[in-house]
Specification:
This protein is mostly helical and 268 residues long. It has helices at residues 2-35, 55-60, 65-91, 96-108, 112-122, 124-141, 148-171, 174-206, 211-267.
Amino acid sequence: MKKEKKLSKDLRSAFAGIVIPVALIVSIVIFKYVLGNGSNFQGGNHDNSPLANNYLGIIYKGGFIVPILMTLLLTVFTISIERFIATRSASGKGSVTSFVQNIKKHLSANEIDKAIEVCNKQKGSVANVVLSALNKYSSVEKDDSMNKEQKILAIQKEIEEATSLELPSLEQNLVILATISSVATLMGLLGTVIGMIKAFSALANAGAPDSVALATGISEALINTAFGIGTAAFAIIFYNVYTTKIDKLTYSIDEAGFSIVQTFASNH
C-alpha cells in the first residue's frame, strides 16, 4: 500500500514537471503562428499595427510576456483537470456522505463485516482509510495481549497513518495553483510596465507628441495586465474549489474514524 501511494505521488509530481514545459511550447507556437499571423495586421506584417478590433493581433502586441502568461493559463486549466480527476477518484464510486452514514449505521449495529463490504464497494481515499481502521478493529478485537486502552490507541494510530498516506496525494499540485495566482498578476504588471516604457520611449524619439500612437501603445501594454489578472482569477477559483473538496473529504474521514473508535470503546 505504501509503495503504491509513493508511486502515485511520484507520478503526479512528474505530471506537473511535464505540463509546464509542454504548455510553454504550445504557448510559443500559438503566439508566433496564430496571434502573430500576418492576417491579423495591417499590410499582412506583424510588425505593423493590428487591424481594427482584431483582438488576436492586439494580444500579440503585448510582447514576449504574452506566451509566459499563456503558459500559466494553460497550466492552471491542466492542473485543474488533473485535480478534478484526483478528487473524484478519492471520493469513490458513490456519495461520500452516504458512504459515511452507511458505515455509521453498520457500526452502530456492530456489523463490522458489512462495513468492510461497503468500503470495498466504495473505494477511494475515504474508503481506504476507513477500511484500514476496520481491519485494525477486527485484528485488535481478537488480540488478548492488549488491554482496551491499547486497542483504542492502535485503532487511532492506524487511522492517522492511513490518513497521512491519502491526504498528500489529494493536495498534490495545489501549490502550483496557489503560486500562479500570485505570479500571473505580477507577470502581467511586468509586461505592462515594459510596454509603457517602450510606448513613451518611442514617443520621445518621435520628437512630437502623438496622442494616437501613445494611446495605442498603452492599450497594447495593458493587455498583459488583463491577461495576468484573468489567469490569477482562474487560479484562485480552482484552488479554493479543490481545497474545499479536500476539506470535505478530510471531515468525512474524521467523522468515520471517530465513529469507529467510539463504537469499539462502547462495545468492549
